[in-house]
Specification:
By secondary structure, the chain is an alpha/beta fold. It is built from eleven helices and ten strands. Strands 1-2-3-5-7-10 form a six-stranded mixed beta sheet, sandwiched between helices. It is globular. The structure holds coenzyme A. Coenzyme A binds next to helix 2 and strand 6.
């Protein structure tokens, strides 16, 4: 995978979009790699969480590759847009918790990718924007759907309809990110979050994520049934027994993801 760097260390997958000269913009090939990697990591039971970064210090991801897109024929535009929205949807469907680490720009598809993750943190130089309306298009990879669900319709309309760019502090105030730290402290903040995630039972976090993602798309009654079904998948697991045993024995649990 030439546009992505990926490794798994201590049950955590670390993925970096590696196109610093293009501010980590999403080329067709990068989208295909992101889709394939999302499927691969999602089915890897050794992976308990996924951390996504942009290479370099300037940019998480500058969105669709505008240079490449300029050369796409009208007939190929549909499949081209499908590739980026497919990649971002694939990323949103990874069953394990995902964390976007936003250093610098997150524009267009880059912001759509960040909001397809479960958690987001930002360096103090981060800039976010669904800027597509300023380019004569509109967000087409989930932005109009995921952003209002995250920060509310009113704030999402302000950002999207004006193609506004906001800084890390504003993103924090809107609840778009959960923390903002100086760029030099970004890696230690990631480690802190990863350490918290690894305290949790892997199947529990997967099931809780599924319950939230599916349950918030339906009415409360159906949502409660989804929650119940997910909860039941955590019963009769070795990890549930381990959690109870560890509590009784006043020690930290050792979860196996079974
Ligand atoms: N697609 C393709 N290439 C991109 C890109 C994109 N989305 N964003 C940046 N690049 C390229 C630039 O063309 C430039 O390449 P060059 O060195 O061959 O000229 C290189 O990355 C550096 O970009 P530059 O604009 O010089 O850097 P900067 O740090 O001053 O600004 C951005 C970076 C991201 C603010 C600016 O490039 C930009 O606004 N990009 C478009 C972002 C956008 O609107 N995305 C939404 C797409 S729907």
């Amino acid at each position: 995978m030439s546009n992505l760097i990926s490794s798994v260390r201590d049950h955590i997958a670390h993925v970096t979009i590696n196109r610093p000269d293009a501010r980590n913009a999403l080329s067709k090939e990068t989208n295909e790699e992101l889709s394939a990697l999302a499927a691969e990591l999602g089915s890897n039971s050794d992976v308990r969480a996924v951390v996504l970064r942009g290479s370099g210090e300037k940019s998480f991801c500058a969105g669709a590759d505008l240079k490449e897109r300029k050369g796409v024929s009208p007939a190929d535009t549909g499949p081209y847009v499908d590739a980026i929205s497919g990649a971002i949807t694939a990323w949103s469907k990874i069953p394990q918790p995902t964390l976007a680490v936003v250093n610098g720009f997150a524009f267009g598809g880059g912001m759509e990718l960040a909001i397809a993750c479960d958690l987001r943190i930002a360096a103090d130089n981060a800039l976010f924007g669904l800027t597509e309306v300023r380019l004569g298009i509109m967000p087409g990879a989930g932005g109009t759907q995921r952003l209002p669900r995250l920060i509310g319709v009113s704030a999402a309309k302000e950002l999207i309809l004006l193609g506004k760019r906001i800084d890390a502090k504003q993103a924090l105030a809107l609840g778009l990110v959960s923390a903002v730290v100086p760029q030099a402290e970004l890696d230690s903040k990631v480690e802190e979050i990863v350490a918290e995630l690894t305290l949790c039972a892997p199947l529990s976090t997967r099931m809780a994520k599924e319950a939230i993602d599916r349950g918030t798309e339906v009415g409360i009654e159906e949502g409660l049934q989804i929650e119940r079904a997910c909860y039941e998948k955590t019963l009769f697991t070795e990890d549930r027994n381990e959690g109870l045993r560890a509590f009784a024995e006043k020690r930290a649990p050792k979860y196996q993801g079974r």
